[in-house]
Amino acid sequence: MRKRTTTRQLQQVITDKLLHIEKVEIYYKSTRQTDVISADVFQENLDFLCKTIFADAIGWHYEYDIKSKQYIIECGRMNGDVDFIFI
Fold it and tell me: What does the pLDDT look like over 9-51, one tens digit per residue?
């Protein structure tokens, strides 16, 4: 079951080493392309985002994948106005 979280909560669990970033993908809905970015770049951008007024504007969702035994965190899938999905 998919649950909601905030940008600051996501940053906190990564900073406290409760979650480890293995892979970050950006999926573009219009072109159906997927790009991979490094975990370090994602972490730096997440830290910057948490310092801005836009941190609360992003709708993050997470769920536990039973097959891989990992959490999958994403934003953008539920928003029809956004062209990309961060996974």
Answer: 999 999 999 999 999 999 999 999 999 999 999 999 999 999 9
| Cα–Cα distances in angstroms (integers) from residue 14 to residues 1, 11, 32, 47, 73, in the given order | 21, 5, 28, 10, 12
pTM, to two decimals: 0.84
Name beta bridge partners: 37: 24
Q: Which amino acid is at 44?
A: E
> What are the DSSP E strand ranges found in the chain?
3-5, 24-28, 33-37, 60-65, 70-75, 84-86
CA distance linking residue 80 with residue 8, whole number of Å: 23
Backbone angle region of 17, left / alpha / beta, with phi > 0 → left and psi within -120 to 50 → alpha = left
Q: Which of 68, 71, 70, 74 is CA-nearest to residue 87?
A: 74
